[in-house]
Design brief:
The complex is a heterodimer of chains A (143) and B (343). Chain A has 143 residues and is α+β, with helices and mostly antiparallel strands. Chain A has helices at 16-28, 61-74, and strands at residues 33-38, 49-55, 79-86, 93-101, 109-115, 121-127. The longest helix of chain A has 14 residues, at 61-74. Classes of the chains: A alpha+beta (143), B alpha/beta (343).
């Protein structure tokens, strides 16, 4: 199941040129970008691993794409996303976040139901990938 | 929800053809560019006018005095980039030329000034995407402990992408006496980027000639990756005078005729003295003349007009110690020129 998180996730995967155009847009708004990756893409897993520090004072998308590609070579079977942070007063939050890399195989999620008192049902999503230990969830890190 | 079928297996980003799916209508770019037939001719002058190259070069000519070899090389680079765009119209493509440069020359010969202009120039010629200049020294590239250098250098390089990375006093990067110095790590990363990201940034190294020669002999890889070694010559007295006039114009001052003569004498004396730093010495001399000018105006009583406020007179320059030192020299006395700088 193709997971849909962040912007553009219902579109076909972006090519490098399209990613560059998005980075350009973020930089033109003076949003610093950062690269993050994870192998546990549960919707409630907000904090992904950081790939280096956020990149401040960049003028050109080539620098960001360099880091994206470095992260892709190191973690080819992980989800990688780009975050653009808007530091302007009154917003101070992530302005744009989109996935730039996903594993070849995405097993998806299962819906677990838990019966509670008074016939109430509690729901939770369970990622099939997390049944395997960290680092092996989407195949070996370095195939 | 997902659009996966046998024809369009999903694979990693960037390395795959566009999959079927919702797609904006976009004009096919390959059809837009019509290659010229091989027997066509291109109007060279029109293209030159369009690109604005001439304006850039003319501005360089009027605003920077002297520096003949530098201007020649810049004109050559501009011509090459122009010819390359024309060749591309015929479908003859060559990879982007390497434009990494090294500026060597004595203090005050305009290395930093030219580097600033180079970024703007290459941007206008369409070689650089942004055309900003990131000026760094050893401190910004080399870390303080193991593992600190690489991220620091890469951070600087990422910031410089799309523009010019200007490394002032580049010879400090390599310290001969300490082989465990982290500088060599920074050099290695730089070399890699200079090779792999040629389209993304231009690296300019600057430094004094003799020390840069040492630096290059210790790092032959760096020497060979830099296509343009440009030597900045010392200025002649005439050129220094032109520089002084340009500088005073910028500050809103003028020289009186008499002061102009004194300036010429001052410069011809100053050139032969130790620690002469070309344009920088001229600037310092002008700063001191401004001080004396202001003091002279306050000392005279009564009213002043605009002419008095903006004109540097001969006494403002004649008070310089360069003249008294020269006078003592000719009268046979030795002068300790090292004491206290030049007033």
């Amino acid at each position: 199941m193709r997971i849909t998180q962040g912007a553009f996730s219902y579109l076909p995967d972006f090519t490098d040129e399209e990613i560059t155009a998005q980075i350009n847009y973020a930089l033109s708004n003076e949003w610093p970008l950062s690269v993050e990756f994870t192998d546990d893409p549960h919707p409630r897993n907000t904090y992904w691993e950081m790939w280096g520090l956020p990149m401040f004072d960049l003028k050109d998308p080539a620098g960001v794409l360099l880091e994206v590609n470095a992260c892709r070579t190191a973690n080819p079977n992980s989800y990688i996303r780009l975050n653009a942070y808007d530091a302007s007063l009154g917003r101070q939050t992530t302005a744009l976040s989109f996935i730039v890399n996903r594993p070849a195989e995405e097993p998806g999620f299962r819906l677990d139901r838990a019966e509670k008192a008074n016939r109430q049902i509690g729901y939770t999503t369970h990622s099939y990938a997390t049944e395997r230990p960290e680092g092996e969830r989407y195949g070996p890190a370095n195939p | 929800m997902t659009i996966t079928n046998a024809e369009n297996p999903r694979s990693s980003f960037g390395y795959r053809p566009r999959p079927a799916g919702p797609e904006l209508c976009r004009p096919d770019e390959s059809d837009d560019v019509q290659l010229l037939p091989s027997d066509a001719v291109v109007d060279l002058d029109a293209l030159r006018r369009e690109s604005g190259t001439d304006d850039v070069l003319r501005a360089l000519d009027t605003e920077l005095v002297g520096l003949k070899p530098v201007k020649t090389r810049i004109a050559e680079i501009a011509a090459l980039l122009l010819v390359d765009t024309m060749r591309a119209r015929f479908g003859v493509t060559a990879p982007q030329p390497t434009l990494h440069m090294s500026f060597t020359g004595n203090p005050g010969t305009g290395k930093t000034t030219v580097a600033m202009r180079m970024a703007d120039l290459l941007h206008r010629l369409g070689y650089l995407r942004r055309g900003h200049l990131v000026s760094v020294t050893r401190d910004d590239l080399v870390g303080e402990y193991v593992g600190h250098t690489a991220p620091k250098t890469k951070d600087v390089i990422k910031r410089a992408m799309g523009g010019v990375l200007f490394i002032d006093e580049a010879y400090y990067l390599y310290k001969v006496e300490n082989e465990r110095d982290y500088g060599s790590e920074a050099i290695e990363i730089l070399l890699q980027v200079m090779e792999n990201n040629r389209d993304d940034l231009v690296v300019i190294l600057a430094g004094y000639a003799d020390k840069m020669d040492q630096f290059f002999s210790a790092n032959p890889g760096m020497q060979s990756r830099i296509a343009h070694h440009i030597t900045f010559p010392d200025y002649t007295v005439d050129e220094l005078e032109d520089i002084a006039v340009l500088m005073t114009d910028g500050l809103g001052y003028t020289f009186s005729d008499e002061a102009r003569n004194v300036l010429r004498r001052y410069l011809s004396l100053r050139v032969d003295q130790p620690w002469f730093a070309n344009a920088r010495s001229v600037r310092n001399a002008l700063e001191r003349a401004r001080l004396r000018h202001a003091r002279r105006l306050l000392a005279t009583e009564g009213t002043v007009d605009l002419a008095a406020l903006t004109t540097i007179e001969a006494p403002d320059l004649l008070a310089s110690r360069v003249f008294s030192a020269a006078a003592e020299n000719t009268s046979g006395q030795t002068v300790d020129v090292t004491a206290g700088g030049f007033n």
